[in-house]
């Protein structure tokens, strides 16, 4: 890359930070915490990463649609690799990804989905660029696993999960975000002992609303004893290894036991289309058996949505199908079983409460 161009790009990026720090210095108000909360660490990490061989461009803007655009930190490998550099505190990243953030804050998972969506829109040599997230301060195990499952290549130190409530606010980097793939596979987690979220202490919740991810996980060959394969796709191979270590089907069986299983027509139709087009013989048979124990209702069953859910805007990770499925569950007072964490994070920014149980595994594709 042309070093003069690199100098111009980083001069522009650093100007705002420089002006702010210069103002504080003149007023003799500068403090150490102000330096740590500036973009200096992030920009320093960007410079270090950019000086590596093969960099083609930095801070390149791509348009996702007429209203949204995305800034790609570093483009390298002749355009085949997109890299985002993250210098934030690992605990802060984990807390943000679990919804412990102020209104409007976007997690690293949201940003990852933005990168992946944008990469699909701008293929290089007829293939979507590889997306790398480089964590210069490290990343906790469970969050790294979630990123890997959705297709992001993670670089940096993988740290044990903290599982603490410590204050981990950190502003050293400015935050930039159909179904989200999700997996929590930390060594400290024992899935056999994890109670379904929102169920304990609520014996009156006897109806479960299944979304597409839940039904896919229930009938997939991978979750039904056929997980010892090496796939061409690294993501599927990783999912297979996690399934071998901690089987998902027993978790769903325990969750479903004694419950009334329902879904809306949109969810079932989309699930059935996927199975018919891509499913194997045994997966189709399991889907047929599942249909015998699931009651399918019209999307508008049980009347209109309440005001807040009527006003839930379809945008970003709030997709129309997900909105229909979750609103259906709310109207019939059922707990929605879903791995669609992207929708939940986005919807909870607009709606105060959503009743759901998030199954702690990825959306397993049929194989």
From TrEMBL:
Q: What is this protein called?
A: DUF1308 domain-containing protein
Q: Which InterPro entries match?
A: DUF1308 (IPR010733), DUF5614 (IPR041076)
Q: Which domain of life is it from?
A: Eukaryota
Coiled-coil features, chain-numbered ranges: none
The family annotation for this protein states: Belongs to the UPF0415 family.
Where the record annotates domain DUF1308, the positions are 208-352
Q: Where is this region: Disordered?
A: 161-187
Looking up Pfam families in the UniProt record yields: DUF1308 (PF07000), DUF5614 (PF18474)
Pinpoint the DUF5614 domain residues.
29-181
């Amino acid at each position: 890359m042309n070093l003069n161009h690199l100098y111009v790009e980083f001069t522009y990026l650093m100007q705002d930070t420089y002006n702010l720090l210069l103002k504080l210095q003149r007023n003799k108000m500068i403090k150490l915490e102000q330096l740590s909360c500036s973009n200096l660490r992030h920009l320093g990490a960007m410079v270090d990463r950019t000086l590596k061989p093969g960099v083609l461009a930095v801070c390149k803007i791509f348009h996702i649609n007429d209203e949204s655009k995305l800034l790609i930190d570093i483009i390298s490998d002749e355009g085949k690799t997109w890299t985002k550099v993250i210098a934030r505190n690992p605990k802060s990243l984990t807390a943000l990804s679990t919804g412990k953030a102020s209104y409007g804050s976007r997690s690293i998972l949201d940003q990852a989905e933005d990168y992946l969506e944008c990469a699909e829109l701008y293929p290089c040599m007829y293939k979507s660029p590889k997306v790398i997230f480089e964590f210069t301060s490290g990343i906790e195990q469970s969050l790294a696993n979630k990123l890997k499952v959705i297709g992001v290549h993670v670089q940096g130190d993988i740290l044990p999960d903290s599982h603490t409530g410590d204050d981990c606010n950190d502003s050293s980097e400015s935050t930039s975000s159909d179904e989200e793939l999700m997996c929590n596979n930390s060594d400290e987690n024992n899935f056999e002992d994890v109670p379904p979220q929102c169920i304990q202490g609520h014996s009156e919740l006897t109806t479960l609303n299944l979304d597409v991810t839940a039904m896919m996980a229930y009938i997939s060959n991978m979750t039904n004893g056929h997980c010892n394969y090496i796939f061409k796709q690294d993501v599927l191979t990783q999912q297979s290894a996690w399934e071998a270590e901690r089987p998902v089907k027993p978790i769903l069986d325990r969750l479903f036991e004694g419950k009334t299983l329902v879904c809306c027509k949109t969810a079932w139709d989309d699930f059935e289309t996927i199975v018919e087009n891509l499913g194997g013989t045994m997966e189709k048979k399991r889907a047929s058996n599942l249909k015998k124990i699931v009651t399918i209702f019209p999307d508008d069953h049980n009347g209109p949505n309440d005001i807040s859910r009527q006003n839930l805007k379809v945008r970003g990770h709030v997709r129309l199908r997900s909105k229909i499925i979750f609103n259906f569950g709310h109207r019939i007072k059922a707990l929605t079983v879903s791995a669609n964490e992207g929708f939940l994070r986005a919807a909870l920014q607009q709606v105060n409460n959503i009743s759901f149980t998030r199954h702690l595994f990825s959306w397993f594709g049929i194989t």
